[in-house]
Amino acid sequence: MDGLARQLASQLGSTVRNETGLKGIYDFSLRFTPEDAHMDASGPGGANASLADNGGTSIFGAVQDQLGLKLESKKGPVEIVVVDHVDKPSDN
After folding, report:
1. CA nearest to 15, candidates 6, 28, 24
2. Is the pTM of this model over 0.85?
3. What span, in angstroms and rounded, lies between the C-alpha atoms of 11 and 32?
4. Phi-psi domain of 65 (left: phi exceeds 0; alpha: psi -120 through 50; beta: other)
């Protein structure tokens, strides 16, 4: 599940924490419509047609419907790196 959390974080561009408590290795497929497909041109044969064909399932809906898991938005501490000073290397 930690691997799934990393993949979801990459797809969403946000921190995702595994709070399922599930251990082990799982084999599954997750089918969803990427968010950028919603931004594409509409019209015959465009993004709106393909969204209608596959149901336009978001990643949030796919995780819940297909895996029985729920992505919840929470506030909490995250690790960050702050660089407050940089020196040019010497010419040794």
Report:
1. 6
2. no
3. 11
4. alpha
Q: Which two tokens stand for residue 43?
A: 């019209």
What average pLDDT is seen over the chain? 82
CA distances from 69 to 18, 31, 35, 37 (A): 11, 14, 19, 23
CB 71 within 8 A of CB 63: yes
The two structure tokens encoding residue 77: 């501490």
Q: Is the distance from CB of 58 to CB of 70 less than 8 angstroms?
A: no
Residue with token string 């040019």: 88
Tokens of 58: 């978001």
